[in-house]
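Q: What structure does this chain adopt?
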Amino acid sequence: MRLKAFILPIFLLVSFLSYSQTDSRTLPFVVSGTVVDAESGKPLQYVGVSFTGQKYATVSNSDGGFILKSDSEPESVDFTLLGYKNVRVLFPKDGSPVTVRMPRGTMTLEEAFIIADPYSVLERAIARINDNYPLQPELFDCFYRETVQKRQRYIFITEAVSRMFKSSYSRRTTIGDRVALDKSRVLVSPDLKDTLSIKVVGGPVQAVQLDIVKNNELLTKEELSHYELRMELPQTIGDRLQYAIRMIPRWSADYPLYKGVIYIDRETYAFTRFDLEYDMTDKDKVIKSILYRKPAGLKFTPTQVAIRYDYSLDNGVSRVSYVRTMIRFKCDWKKRLLKTDYTAISELVTTGLHTENVEIIPKKESFGERDILSEKADKNFDPEFWKDYNIIEPSESLDKAIGRIVRRSERN
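A:
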C-alpha cells in the first residue's frame, strides 16, 4: 500500500490554506490534568481522554498533560490506553487539575483460549467492516498539529481546528471524504539557516487518506499476499482484549511495504489500531513515495516513516479517533561533510462528533491533496487562541520552543 499524495510542507517556504472563520463555540466546562502510570508515576502520552456519554475527546501530550472542554456539564471523564485498564474519574466541578493514575492491564484468558490463525482473524475482521463502522455520513471536529525539529530544536509549528466529513464505510472508498480548516496559526523560525524548502507527504487530509479500513488498499488479498502474518501475544486497549497481528514483508514490491502490528478487537473483530512503519530496505523507493520536491544539490535520506491510525469504540460503533505520522530524515549539501537530522510529525485528534443532519463539506471549502498550509494562517500564538476549542495540549518542550521562536522573531 502506498501513501496517497498529500503534502506536509516542511520548513519556512510554505503556505497555509486560507481558512473561513466559524463562530466560536463557548465550552465553559473544563477538565485538565496529568495522566501517569500508577506504579512508576511516569507520564503517559497518547492516552484517549473523553467525557462519558459525550462526543468531546482529546489525547494526552508527551508530558501526560491534557485539557478537555464541553458545552454541557459532564458527570465523569474516561481514560483509555493500550496495555492499561480503563479509568473513569468524576468531573471536578471546582475546576482543579486532576492527576489520573492508570494501572497496567491484566489479561484474563479462558482456559480454552487458543492463539488464532492470523489470516482467519484478519479475514473475519474485513468481513465485519459493515457491522463495526458507521453506515451513515458523519462530521467530526478535529484538532491538527504539525511540528518540525532540526536535531532537537523546533523550527516549525502549525496548528488548525478542522472539520472532517466521512461517508458510509459500506462504500469502502475515501472518495468524497473531505477536510476543511476553520481556524489556524503558524510559527516558523526566523533563522535563515533553518530555511529548507522540502515537500513530503503529510497534512490535515491524512485522517481521510490513511483510513486503511475505508480506503480498501492494504486489506485486499493481493496486497496482503506481500506479507507474512504472525499472531503476537494478546494485548488490551482499555478493558478490551485485542488480537495483535504482526506484518512482515515477504518480498520486495514496486513501492515500500509496511512492517508493524494490527490490533483487532477480540469480541467485535473491529480494527482498533494500525501501528506501522515503512520497510526502509530500499530507501530509493521510500524517497519516491514520500518526497515531492527538494532544492537542487540537497541530499535527502529518510531514516523512518511511521504511521499510527486509531479507532475508538462507542456504543458498538468504531470511529477514527487519532492519527499520527512521523518522518525522520537527514539532509546534507554536496559540499558539506555533516548531515543534519530532522523530524517531522503531524497528528490529528477527533474532538467532537455530529451524526444528525450531516452534509458533505463543499468542495470549495475542502482542503485539497496538494494544498499547503501557512501564508494566510494567523501568526498569533497567544495562550487564548484556542480557548473555545478542544486541542492537544502543548508539551513543556513545545511551549518552550514557541517562546524561543517568538523571542527570536521579535529580535529580528
